[in-house]
Each structure stands twice: as structure tokens, then as C-alpha cells.
Amino acid sequence: MTTAADALQMLKDNDVKYVELRFTDIAGKEMHLTVPASRIDEDTFELGQPFDGSSFAGWRGIEASDMLLLPDPSSARMDPFREVNTIIFTCDVLEPSTGKGYARDPRSIAKRAEAYLKSTGIGDAAYFGPEPEFFIFDAIRWKHAPGESFYKIDSEEAPWSSGLDLEGGNLGHRNRVKGGYFPVSPVDSFADIRSEMCTLIEQQGVPVEIHHHEVGCAGQCEIGTKFSTLVERADWTQIVKYTVWNVAAAFGKTATFMPKPIFGINGSGMHTNMSLFRDGKNVFYDPNDPRGLSKEAYSFIAGLLHHVKGFAAITNPLVNSYKRLVPGYEAPCYLAWSASNRSALIRIPASRGQSTRVELRSPDPACNPYLAFAVCLAAGLDGIEKGMTPPEEVTENIFAMDQATREANGIESLPGSLEEAIHALKADQ
User: Fold this and answer.
1) Mean of the per-residue pLDDT values of the chain
2) Which residues are identified as catalytic?
3) What is the DSSP string of 282-338?
4) Position with higher pLDDT, 100 vs 178
5) What is the pTM of this model?
């Protein structure tokens, strides 16, 4: 474990001038305040940094606004985007009266989810491996006024940009619609940008496993990073987002994790892989099962399916999220599971043994990762604790089924709008 003394030594070793204290609000956006490094001492890591919590939506009122930021020494990393040497600490938000995690602080909620898992005896660690996709555009313009409303996405890589008169000439290298998966350069025009993103992501302590162009033909990309425990993996997801946004800006581009920025083009998901471990062994693996799955794995799947309509408002939190969850664009919208079928909501990737995991394919990268991972864990554990049994595996392409066939097989749909999702959430405590 990194101690406060280690963190303070890091400040000295790197000639740090400023310290960024980061936390995440309910909507999943990182916030920060900056203090001179000379103001940071061991008391900062024990007593916290006071701040006003009344200006964040859904938090405290102005009559009880005092809160504390407690930096996590193990989260220390140099900010690669600052001119002056600056170190970042991810923080928990504390109640000043009790010194405990604030009830609405997403990171504190995620920590309570990990503690609850241990209290059940089902496992001592929950591992998460999210796969957030994103788009890189050349420019974004929009306007909403009484007499005018529009949005405009500029993407030189998009197939509809073949007629643009570009400086240096239009070279014509374009993806076809839905044809953006794995092309080489020059069709893939973002390989260098992604490599720079990966370099800086790793520099901040997040192991990178892969990067590539995605199906969306107008600059959709994915950077695959390693799985980790719930809280750390949520921390890492925030680091990935911060880095993607800022590298894109440094290249004169704009990146977005919006689930469905372009009509008629595949949206951006965040397939989320999950596994439980106890005493160093994967709880989901059973070598005697035909699929290699334990009874706990089947019940975890059942819990996810039972509660997914209720927690969709958390894993898919925008009005725009439900523009992605429609048939025809590889996005899962039907409640089913399969050992390999990618049209199902839940898939079991091919690896078994210690790598056995459950992949929930509905979340999108606009979600708050602390809340999304916590609620997925809670739903799965509810399935285990209540001994739930999942429906039969669906091996057929669900997208190719008609409505009558889906109904005959008992296959329901995810909520069709954020409004529906919120009603489902209220009905599922």
C-alpha cells in the first residue's frame, strides 16, 4: 500500500508545484480543485481538504454544505497535461461530522459495495473489466435558441466527407458505413492519436491491453485496459476518459463517450466483464459443468437479468442512451444470455478457468462507473443470495427473430427510454 509518507515523497521527487484533488459527482463527471503542493502534509491525508458541496446537483443544500475531500495516497499520478508539475489524487468525499464516506459520494458507495460482498462470504473480491468505446470528431457545433436549433458534426474520416475540399486535397480514404472495424491506415486515421492516449494512460498507472478502430465509420475507437477490483477499476475508467478527452484536444480533435452521437451509425457501448473471487479462486468456474460455470455464476446471471430493467437508469443514464439500445446496430436490447451469442444481453466469453467471467453488454460509457459497477454487483449478489435460476440459454440470433418468436421464447426488452428506465428503477429497490 502507498502511504501518505510515500505520496509526500513523490511530491518532492517530482518537484511538484500543485496538487489536484479529484472526485466524481453523481452524474459521473470528474471534478477538481487545486492547491499548492506546499499546503499538502500528512494531515491532508488524515483530516481531508474542506470544500463547499452545495453547488453539485443532487448533493447538499447550502444550509449544510461543508464537506471534506480525503485523498487516496495509492492514486497518486502525475498529470501529463499540465505545464507546471502537478500531481493528481483521487479522493473520497467525507462527512465532516463523522469522518465517514458521504452517502451520495459514488466512490464511497463503490467501497460499501465491496465491503458488502465480503460480508456475504460469497467472495472477497469483485473484478471488473469495462470496454468503453468513444468517437473522435474534428469539430462539434450546436445551437438551441428561440429561432434556431441545430447540431453539426465534422468528421473528415466519415464516408459522407468524400466531397469535402480539404487543404492538401481529399485523398479519399474512407470507411464504408458500419465498416470501421480494424481497417489499417490511412483508412484508420486515428492510430497515432490512440497510441498517444495509450502511452499516457499507462504513464498514469493503467495497464493497456489493446487499441483499435471500432465499427462506427466516423472515428469510433476503443482502448482496452486491464481488469481490476471494483473501486480501482472505476478509478481507472475515469483516468481513461480524462486522457482520451485531453489527447484528442491536443491533436485539435474532440472526443466523446456519448452513447449514440450519430443516427444510423453504431453507438458506443461499455461492455462490462465481471467475476467474483474467494481465496484466490474464481467463484464462477466449475470444471464439471458443460459450460464451465458454477451455480453461483448461473445465479449471478439470473440476478442481472432480474434487475437489469431496474438498474438501466444507472448503467444507461442519458436520454441519448436509449437511441443506442435499438436493433440493427449490435447493441443488446433483449433480455437473454448465451455462452457465445453476441446478440444476447449477457455473454460468457470463451476463456474459462481463472478467466471465467460474465459480460453484460448493455452499459454505455456515459454512466458513472462507480455506481454502475456497484449496482451490477448488487444485482448479481441478489441472484446468488436468493438462489435465482436463469432462463434457458439462447443460441439463435435474437436480432433475426420476429416479435412473435421472441415472445414465444419469453425474451423481454430493455426499457425503451430513460423515462421507462426511471419508472423501472423506482419499482425495483
Assistant:
1) 91
2) 52, 131, 133, 214, 222, 271, 342, 359, 361
3) ETTB-TTSTTSB-HHHHHHHHHHHHHHHHHHHHHS-STTHHHHSSTTSS---B--EE
4) 100
5) 0.94
